[in-house]
Amino acid sequence: MLRTHTCGELNMAHVGQIVNLAGWLQRSRDMGGLTFIDLRDRYGITQLVFNMEINSALCMEARKLGREFVLSVTGKVAERSNKNPKMATGDVEMLVDSFTVLNVSKTPPFTIEDNTDGGEELRMKYRYLDLRRGVNRKNLELRHKLGIETRNYLNELKFMEIETPYLIKSTPEGARDFVVPSRMNNGQFYALPQSPQTFKQLLMVAGYDRYFQIVRCFRDEDLRADRQPEFTQIDCEMAFVTQEDILQTFEGLARHLFRVVLNIETGEFPRMSYDQAMKLYGCDKPDLRFGMVFSELNDIVKGKDFKVFDDAELIVGINAAGCSEYSRKQLDELTDFVKRPQVGATGLVYLRYATDGTLKSSVDKFYSPEDLRAIATKCGALPGDLVLILAGRTDKTRSALCDLRLEMGNRLGLRKASEFKPLWVTDFPLFEWDEETRRFYAKHHPFTSPVPEDIPLLDTNPVAMRANAYDLVINGTEIGGGSIRIHNKDLQKKMFTVLGFSDEDSSNQFGFLMNAFEYGAPPHGGIAFGFDRWTTIFGGGESIRDYIAFPKNNSGRDVMIDSPSAIKEEQLKELNIRLTP
Amino acid sequence: MLRTHTCGELNMAHVGQIVNLAGWLQRSRDMGGLTFIDLRDRYGITQLVFNMEINSALCMEARKLGREFVLSVTGKVAERSNKNPKMATGDVEMLVDSFTVLNVSKTPPFTIEDNTDGGEELRMKYRYLDLRRGVNRKNLELRHKLGIETRNYLNELKFMEIETPYLIKSTPEGARDFVVPSRMNNGQFYALPQSPQTFKQLLMVAGYDRYFQIVRCFRDEDLRADRQPEFTQIDCEMAFVTQEDILQTFEGLARHLFRVVLNIETGEFPRMSYDQAMKLYGCDKPDLRFGMVFSELNDIVKGKDFKVFDDAELIVGINAAGCSEYSRKQLDELTDFVKRPQVGATGLVYLRYATDGTLKSSVDKFYSPEDLRAIATKCGALPGDLVLILAGRTDKTRSALCDLRLEMGNRLGLRKASEFKPLWVTDFPLFEWDEETRRFYAKHHPFTSPVPEDIPLLDTNPVAMRANAYDLVINGTEIGGGSIRIHNKDLQKKMFTVLGFSDEDSSNQFGFLMNAFEYGAPPHGGIAFGFDRWTTIFGGGESIRDYIAFPKNNSGRDVMIDSPSAIKEEQLKELNIRLTP
To answer: What pLDDT does residue A225 have?
Structure first.
């Protein structure tokens, strides 16, 4: 090795030893007769000292070294006179005897510090420099640790990691596939997997009753901030289980990760049905770090000649504790917030419950003080609080109030990155009706089993059917979801029919799975976690990109390697494809 | 769970307990008043007993069950009168009280037994049934265990697993890329990685001095028996190391895997230079499970008027101990073997050293008994042995004799699947000259560092340069290879020039790497292991396909899911590509 120690390990026990370090020049300071260099590697920083009086030639050489030069240094470990308790190696420094420049560096285009002066685009172009920053290193260390701990936990439970293929078959249901032209099979294409769903089900049919895989998945979607064209899943499946077994098993995994990675004991995860979540929080992934649950006000506010409420399908409020003194400006900001097209409300009604006990609302002329008090009571408001009310069509109103609730949570500092509130959401609907295409879509995916007692509804009222499906939500982010699967060919076929697949389509795309169901498919179910998201939540981060070594930008480009890019005419020719002019 | 125990765990300690099992009906036997069913799951087989006298209705129902039906059974564990010491559960059986058919099965198209009656094509089409066979289950269990042990060993050594992208950039050097059209970037393509080579080097530049990843790689090559279009690598890289550090570190990994997976202490791995390996075994991946090293005979056999030898660049023999009594037929077979186009020799000369001490050869008329004795001595032959000699151009002759040596090893049973002989091969040549394209190719890849003292030869005699490269060979199979990399931009640029890259090409394809080298790239090197091959060797198997859950056939097809396949016109349109008519 070109070093005897790392830059993170020297301490008082090493004082007097001659050691060798290698790393990058983080910064250097000339202080009269002394030159100090901070030498950095993955493990930490060690202060190097060069002394003009002891070796002026060496010191002069050291003064020529620039930021990010790669050095190999030899010297004696000494106790510092000015100890730095903030650094792991802050008790000591190295009195350098000699050094070698292993490589020089141009001045980096941004500072290699946690708080860097580089914008995102520049940092992505020079991602290999960006990744030198401590914040990014910690993110990748966290990711590595989560991977190791997940694997060992599942291995202990006799789960087998089984690799499934990446070159599979295009199945246009769901998101768009990335496809790969086959040179050896003229005019045909592979697809990259959106998930190993069908393969893990086949593994259950094959008898591998506990499967997992940490696996890359691909979706050719228009990208949003928290989406990447390739992302990583912790993909799991079990046979001979009920939903309860799966929730227990993977709550076990999640609690293990909370314990060993974050040192947090979460206790048992609460559970909530989809209907409850929608009613109380307006979405299927409520952030439980704070309250502000929805209170439905139809009974109280209708029939008082306030047309907006009278015409509304739902009138629903939340109570923002301690906000009764919100200024006109603050209330206007909230109104503007809910009127943004992304939120989509038409207006906001508020009710101040002043500390002196008086109630004042933006709809005073329609409601008596008793009415207002009834609203306040229903919303659980106390003197000093502010009730915020939206009204309109149920689904849109819930969704808008959900956004407002989260906004208030942010404004009030109630969404702390260091606090964790996991939640199981269960009893999802099986289907969603899409007005535009006038057909049903599977809320989860077409392999999800209905709740058994709802199966008769398949012929009569599919939209009322509940799925044997569940999501794991942490702090308002869905980090995993799964279901008990269908393992009966006839039921699977019927599902495809309800979803608008012709017999030919379902047989072309999923015939192999339905055939497999005829040869002794066991009852089975599973779950898949978004590994990027899980890591991001655990790291207290905002964007999954910060937890991916080489992410792509919003156009799906890797700006560092400049990809995608044109390929040679010969390559196209071999693949028997042409570009459309 | 739909079971209290697995089919592999019941023993005398459970006798008297009421338990619940779930699994597949492996076979059933009606014996007068009793019906026996072997119930199978991933963990083993348990014998179920149904008794006509005790419950005739249940027994009659059981007699209707077919092979591969999925059952849930409840009953009492009892000691067997006829114990079966070959089965883990052979001391006990279950007296069944009740059962449920969880799913029925059509009669499988082949028997679910280690020795099945299904041909490969049929088994691949029904791979989910093939994978139920114990042999395949053991292969995937071995693979899982190797993965877990590899990760934990490297994690202990502070290696970080870092995921690199799958959607990267096409670099036509080396094998052919699979490409992925980008919908969002019109006319442009991603490529699937042939290996994460450049990314792991960038991670070294980024300071992550110990990286690994168990990662899928892709090569669009015409397939051979032991090649797959997608395969898995254990990919590793380290910074601040010498070649010796890498050999030590990964010999450590390999010895760990031998120890914990196969319970074998290998001792230190021998090392051999490329030149030695070629001279003594005729190839760069010698199988050291047996001797038969090459003996070069030019000094002895030339100048005796035997034109074939006089004209040959190399005359080289091996000694097959104990084969002096080979029949005419056997010798003809060997001659036919070496004349096969894949082997390519023009003939075979033999020398029998009879047990009575007499020597007899196929070229007796050219050589005196003293000559023959000298040949025998040089080859280390003793009475009872057979010397086999080939002659011709050095490279072709070595290659042919290498094949003959392996063939003799097979015939003599010297290549035992249960014996393991690892070997490091070092000092590979840096370049290969290709007559056809009249240019140099990198023997390893263009990022491989020359042995430092050979760098001056870059301008004068590239073909004489040695690489700082190494392979790990086990039993004649290369299971891994790597090198110390170039970390200097100028040297890297020069390498690309010698390899015939224009400045534009090298900058287009690898500009990001050469730029990175300007910002403090540390000395680094690494290795990548073929995970499929390693598993196959450890499993004592022949084909990597048997160790891959869902392999492709020689046309790159997955015959189970019937992929690749045609995609919809809409998909092509969105991607702005057309099929060439």
So the answer is: 67
Residues, chain B: 581
Q: Tell the residue number behind the tokens 């050589």, with chain if given.
A: B367
Q: How many C-beta atoms lie closer than 10 Å to residue B437's C-beta?
A: 9
**Rounded Cα gap, residues B17 and B111, in angstroms:** 33
The CA distance from B538 to B140, in Å, is 12
CB B482 within 8 A of CB B470: yes
Task: Report the alpha-carbon distance of residue A24 to residue A26 in Å, rounded.
Answer: 6
Q: Where are the domains of chain A?
A: 12-103, 138-271+423-547, 290-415
The β-bridge relationship of strands B179-181 and B314-320 is: unpaired
Task: Scan residues 127-186 of A and list those with Cβ closer than 8 Å to B.
Answer: 127-132, 137, 140-141, 143-144, 147-148, 151-152, 155, 160-170, 172, 176-185
Q: Do B207 and A41 lie within an 8 Å CB cutoff?
A: yes
What's the order of all strands across the beta sheet hosting A477-484? A160-161, A210-218, A230-239, A524-530, A477-484, A469-474, A422-426, A271-273
Touching B: A residues 511-530, CB under 8 Å: 511-512, 516-523
Provide the β-strand partners of residue A73: A21, A99
The CATH superfamily label for domain B138-271+423-547 reads Bira Bifunctional Protein; Domain 2 (3.30.930.10)
Distances (CA, A) of B334 to A379, B304, B346, B405, B406: 93, 25, 12, 11, 12
Angle between helices B489-498 and B503-516 (to 10 degrees): 150
Given the DSSP bridges, would you call strands B477-484 and B469-474 parallel, antiparallel or unpaired?
antiparallel
How many residues can be counted in chain A? 581
Query: Chain A contact for B581, CB < 8 A?
Result: no
Which CATH number describes the domain made up of A12-103?
2.40.50.140
Least Cα separation, residue A237 to chain B (angstroms): 13
Q: Give residues with Cβ within 8 angstroms of B569, minimum separation 6.
A: none
- Compute the distance between CA of residue A387 and CA of residue A380 in angstroms, rounded to an integer: 9
Q: What is the pLDDT of residues A79-95, one digit of tens each?
A: 999 999 999 999 999 99
Q: Is the peptide bond before B522 cis (omega within 30 degrees of 0)?
A: no
Q: Quick count: other Cβ atoms within 10 Å of Cβ B28?
A: 19
CATH number of this structure's domain B290-415: 3.30.1360.30
> pLDDT tens digits for A387-433?
999 999 999 999 999 999 999 999 999 999 999 999 999 999 999 88
* CA distance to A83, B334, B352, per residue, from B325 (Å): 83, 14, 8
Q: What mean pLDDT do residues B329-340 have? A: 97
Choose from B221, B506, B565 for mutation: most chain A CBs within 10 A. B565
Q: How confident is the model at residue B173 (pLDDT cuts 50, 70, 90)?
A: low
Q: CA-based angle B148:B149:B152, to the nearest 5?
A: 85
Between the CA atoms of B366, B369, B370 and B372, what dihedral angle is there, to the nearest 10 degrees? 70
Give alpha helix (H) positions in A217-273.
243-262
Contact A556 B220 (CB under 8 A): no
